[in-house]
Amino acid sequence: MSTESPKPAARRTRLTPEREAELYEAVLAILREVGYDALTMDAVAARTHASKATLYRQWKGKPELVAGALRHKKPIKLEEIDTGTLRGDLRAMVCEADDEQMEQDAALMRGLGHAIHANPDLHRALRELLIEPETEALRAMLQRAVERGEVAADNPALDFVAHMMLGAFLSRPLFEDRPADAAYLVRYIDAVILPALGR
């Protein structure tokens, strides 16, 4: 009769935050170089000296990996913002971002525009991993403003704050051939969003 102890089942190990950040940086670098359609898990594995098995173990596939990289790259997480005033919260959304990084991110998102429409899996992953968490955090921010009495609970503009912010971010390059930097977005918040909310 064998006295050897049974081997423990292999555990799924999590990547260290440093290693995860390295993988995300590689994903974004490849995205900028070749675009979404030409990005492959093989290319990410080769660039980062990781196995494809590791990539698929941590992320279901390319859409989830790209969405995770975009969320990781965000300079500030909305759920971490709570300055005590709506104006302070909205300004914090844009003032803590680096203008050069914002311009790079805008270019990256413009490049992903076609891929999002052509790849339902990418669209779903971006909604689940990036858009919905950010939208929920923005809703919580606005709800705090309602509870503080800064905004009327029945103000119809509450439903369109995310649309207005995204519109400012995307439309300035189109109309003015200039990026939507922090100074522009602060002016937009004060001139458009806060008045729409009755502030």
Folded structure, characterized:
By secondary structure, the protein is mainly alpha-helical. Helices cover 67% and strands 0% of the residues. The protein contains nine helices and no strands. The chain is elongated and about 55 Å long. The termini are far apart. InterPro entries: Homeodomain-like_sf, HTH-type_TetR-like_transc_reg, HTH_TetR, Tet_transcr_reg_TetR-rel_C_sf, TetR_C.
What are the defining features of this structure?
67% helix; single chain; mainly alpha; 199 residues
- What is the succession of H and E elements? HHHHHHHHH
Number of helices: 9
What's the mean pLDDT score?
Answer: 86
Distance between the termini: 80 Å
**Percent helix range:** 55-70%
Task: Report the structural category.
Answer: mainly alpha
Estimate the global geometry from the Cα principal axes: elongated
- Biggest sheet, open or closed, and with what strands and sense? none
Query: Hey, roughly how much beta strand do the residues contain?
Result: under 5%
CA-based gyration radius? 21 Å
Number of strands: 0
Low-pLDDT segments:
1-12
InterPro entries: Homeodomain-like_sf (IPR009057), HTH-type_TetR-like_transc_reg (IPR050109), HTH_TetR (IPR001647), Tet_transcr_reg_TetR-rel_C_sf (IPR036271), TetR_C (IPR011075)
Pfam families: TetR_C_11, TetR_N
Keywords: DNA-binding, Transcription, Transcription regulation
Protein name: TetR/AcrR family transcriptional regulator
